[in-house]
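Weekly modeling sync, notes
Attendees: AB, CL, MP (scribe)

Item 1: holo prediction request
CL wants a bound-state model with 3-hydroxybutanoyl-coenzyme A before deciding which constructs to order. AB pointed out that an apo prediction alone won't tell us much about the pocket. Agreed to run with the ligand included and paste results into these notes for async review.

Input as submitted:
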Amino acid sequence: MDIRKITVLGAGLMGHGIAQVAAQIGKYDVTMRDVERRFIDNGMNMIKDSLERFVKKSQMTEVEMNEILARIHTTLDLREAVSDADLIIEAIPENVELKRTTFKEADAWAPPHAIIASNTSSVSITELASATGRPEKVCGMHFFNPPQLMKLVEIIKGAKTSDETIQTITETAHKLGKETVLVKKDSPGFIVNRILIPALNEAAALHWEGVADRDDIDRAVKLGLNWPMGPLMLLDYIGADTTLAIAEVLAKEIDPKFHASPGLKQMVKAQLLGRKTGKGYYEWTQK
Ligand code: 3HC
């Protein structure tokens, strides 16, 4: 199937990056939708900041930047956002009920041929698909943060996803300059988060137990495992709330051994979520 128009639902940390990559690398006509104007403005500002970095490094001209920005339309209206989309990528908060309602509404208003993909990291694709009348056209399309720089997209097959849908999404992800892996079964955490989240949780536990200081935990993993950033910084970067949500799904759905550490829970209770609230294990400035 030929994808021409992509709609991204959600202008947050992931949504804005996915919309940018679709307009910048894929040269798609993109619509980015969120529920409040301030979220859209914030998303567009993050896109501009990101594009300006490429311009400053002479990797892009200002004309190209403006062309990319002109390919991104924004709206608050879900119906308008999806009514002529070929592909809808959902990147709204990790709340099952909110996602199911959004899938149901998108299904009602999107053209019959449209594929609805979710960027979820913790909700079952099969469960989202069951909120629609087109489960064969629903799959997972999981980007990594920041989507502008991270090469991988995990493609997840729900219980009823068709091979044709997987093929179209794989081709589209390649057009966005991404490498893909196929997750054959809709299993919590897919591949990367099943491995990553327990590691971040253990870093939070080490810190909570006072086994080592923040900087030593991060330096140990950076230098000992060659990670680009330490686990506590990465936890801040992803958000303690998102990390906790994924840990809880892993514990509930796969094995209690994945249970969240008190240290991680404490960060969420204190709203020390990291980059998104300005403070977590580290202080985060606007950029
Ligand atoms: N847009 C454009 N350019 C950007 C950018 C953005 N959004 N963010 C960073 N950059 C550029 C910077 O300008 C800089 O460019 P330069 O080297 O030419 O000056 C370059 O990227 C490196 O940035 P920084 O110097 O600020 O910092 P780092 O060298 O640490 O790189 C990073 C930043 C790429 C984020 C790197 O630290 C990294 O790869 N971290 C790990 C990220 C990761 O693991 N992500 C996956 C999280 S898991 C996930 O997303 C799944 C979810 O479900 C939880």
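Recorded for review: The beta strands are 5-9, 29-33, 72-75, 87-90, 115-118, 138-143, 152-157, 179-183.
Action items: CL to compare against the apo run; MP to circulate these notes.
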